[in-house]
Amino acid sequence: MAEPKLLFIDTSVFVASVFGDAANSILDELLKRLEKKDIVIILPEVIKNEIKTQFDILKNEYFEECKKNLSINKIVGIDEEKTKQTEGKKKVNQKGTNSKTIDECIRAPREKLLANIEKYYKDLSKKIEVFFRHRNIVNIPLTDKLLLSGMKRSLLKKAPYTNIEKTTESAHTKDADCIAFESIIFYIKSLKTPSKNSVILCVSDKDYHSKDGRLHDDICKDLEKCKFESYKSLAEMLEITFRTTTLKTSKDGTGVKMEERAASIAGPSTGIDSAIESGEAASVSK
Known about the structure:
With 286 residues, the protein is α/β, with parallel strands linked by helices. Among the domains are: 58-137, no CATH class; 138-199 and 223-238, no CATH class. The chain has helices spanning 11-18, 23-35, 45-69, 72-76, 80-88, 94-132, 144-155, 176-190, 217-222, 234-241, 258-266, 272-278, and strands at residues 5-9, 39-44, 137-140, 198-202, 227-231. Strands 3-2-1-4-5 form a five-stranded parallel β-sheet, sandwiched between helices. Strand 4, helix 9 and strand 5 (227-231) form a beta-alpha-beta unit. Helix 6 (94-132) runs parallel beside helix 12.
């Protein structure tokens, strides 16, 4: 029986996937591969914490954007700042006169749509938690040894060193990419026969790559004892490695950006009633 592939997913790749059109399909496919023992996912604690933090921040920002796009002023095209100025001069805007009536008509379906969107992301959060608890995910806790290894890597400016000016030496302890990669090396070294294992890196961050877009030489050198390959999205990796053809992705393979989804899901031309009836809060304007 072939050894399972060792998969590392960087924060930006995972978050882009769960905010893309293929979020559930990608998670389902990963869970399927975990169950079949096709893959073992290496999950450093720093990455897990980053994913949870970024997911919550983006989810909240996205939901606020949805509410804004579904506000009556947005729907009827009223500029809020100009409206305030007009009201100060005691002038009446015809759109403003009609907006209250329109607001009354769409309030119930709008609230139901927002509730559907909120439920979608609550369900997705639960699915991610189930994913993180899978028995074939190797959680790598943050230890003093890994912290020091990551700091050393950052100080030496070895990829995936975050190439920004660090004003103090303690800033290197916060270089999560270096700590995460040292966690991968730590796990590979713990295996009896590393040469039999194939490592897959799903990384889109430029710090992992050279200027030509290829995986950085520093990283290649540290992984030279085993087979390795890299991809910049989970959809691309699943399609090429496991011939998965059911994933819906954008041209760059990462899924539609959150801001674009916010506009498409909750914009004025969404079609609120049909969206609520279908219950597809996360893909209303397909």
